[in-house]
Amino acid sequence: MRNMNDDHTHVQDFFTARAADWDSRFPDDGPAYAAAVADLGLREGDRVLDAGCGTGRALPPLRAAVGPSGVVLGADLTP
Question: I need a labelling partner for 58 at 20 to 30 A (CA). Which of 9, 26, 66, 77 fits?
Answer without folding.
Answer: 9
